[in-house]
Amino acid sequence: MQPPTVPCPERIAPQLVTLVSRPPAGAWRYEIKYDGYRMLARIDGSVQLFTKNGYDWTDRMPLVAADLARMAVHSAWLDGEVVVQDDDGRRRASVWRATWSRSRRGECPRRHCVRGVG
Description:
It comes from Pseudomonas putida. This protein is of the alpha+beta class. Helices cover 16% and strands 24% of the residues.
């Protein structure tokens, strides 16, 4: 017997972050700034990619959508960044901008850094 399924929400709000020079003391959780492109992924039979402002960018990032479609996930929201690294594994915004058209053609490696899963 399979557990009941719950429909995936049509939209969610991104988990917004605050840039600081160093993490505060105490039991705070923090994350590293990746200099990638913030993206929300809705997986529910197909994959849709949305910017933090809600624009559908699935057609602009077909390789990212294809990568996420291969995951063993039936229904989920992923909140994270799409990151492109240079040859030394460093994340650089300039590399992302320079390789935008190459990534659309499948010639550029990419990495998905997920913040939250719903």
